[in-house]
Design brief:
The structure is a single chain. This protein is 41% helix and 23% strand. The chain has 397 residues and is α/β, with parallel strands linked by helices. The chain has one domain: Endonuclease Chain A (Endonuclease, Chain A). Strands 5, 9, 10, 12, 13, 14, 15, 17 and 18 form a nine-stranded mixed β-sheet that branches. A seven-stranded mixed β-sheet has the order 1-8-7-6-2-3-4, with helices on both faces. Helix 9 crosses helix 14. The two termini are 33 Å apart.
Length: 397
Amino acid sequence: MSKRLINKIKQRGQRYIHYKYNYAPRKDNRYQLYSEGDQFYPAMLDSIRQAKSCIYIIQYIFETSLTSEIFINALIQAKQRNVEVYLILDAYGSKELNMQERQRLYNAGIDIFFYNPLNDHHLIKFLYRDHRKLLVIDGEHAFIGGAGICDDYNFPFQHPASWLDIVIKISGTIAQDCSHLFLQQLEYFKKKTIITEEKVRSASLNLTMSYGRLLTSKTWRHNEIQRAILHAIRKAKHRVWITTPYFVPTRRLRSQLKAASHRGCDVRLLLPGVHSDHPWVSQIARQRYSRLLHNDVRIFEYQQRFSHAKAILCDNWSCIGSSNLDRWNQKFNLELNVEIQSEQLAKQLYYFFNQSFDTSKEIDKVQWQSRPQLQRIKEWFWSKVAIWIERFIHNIP
């Protein structure tokens, strides 16, 4: 092998390391976890009302509802205080935001941008969506999670129609990274060019210390979230707990979960039970239960209502955000999570998981093997549909 070729391979490897993550690990942040709409909505609205300079919002779902009306009123009041207010909404996820509310925002001087408008009926282009959920206040505070601006989270506590979800408030340097991410997207919509910050090595900080880092996903070609999750599971020594509303994992993720269980880790999945907005996806997930149970992965189905939460706890490492653990989500969506190495936050998330396990049904391995034939047929049918979808999207450029 020539010296020139060897150097070229080395340079390629160095570039891979250098461009591993968009944002550096950050210290000196404060975290607060919210797990109910009557917790995170008031916290978000309170921050909006106290904003002094700028409010940045990225949302997948922003639909006409009592909840959106409250948020729109708060945003208009902020604009009247001379606070800069910008919204980036996904065109499909926010299609239920009616023209009256859009006009109210426009009339107040608030800039709204829609990601991937639906006027182009090209099927493939239609599939790419902005699934992120982000609120940034003055570059000092950021809210990241899985909840949209709608009434699904705003029913009375424990109401069967209310969705369970997680939102984390971050105060500190990660909020500045969130501002940077938003402004990059804003400049894209404005058709301008800005100088982006240099991407950093993952080893720029001792990751055994308390730290946090913003994780982004731009389809399969650049998926920091998946990479960070797999790395954390490989390093876990005691616990790997995962909750996701849609569990259609990659083979690599399933292998890592089994390997963690074989190492003696307590591996658990918290998934939707009878309540789901896409029951067919739950059937696809159940088709994978037998092999996971055989490898001592414990599976819990949440019973009280639909669990839309997306979080992972590996020892004292936490990952929270908008990304689901299904392959289609990772193929087409823009996603945003935050990874945090913090004993304090791990305790908050540990408490959330234990509360959820207490109101869930654990799948018994023996009983699962004797489930009704009709249930097996449903799993088989929807798994075949999943294979067809997988083949279809595999050929999409």
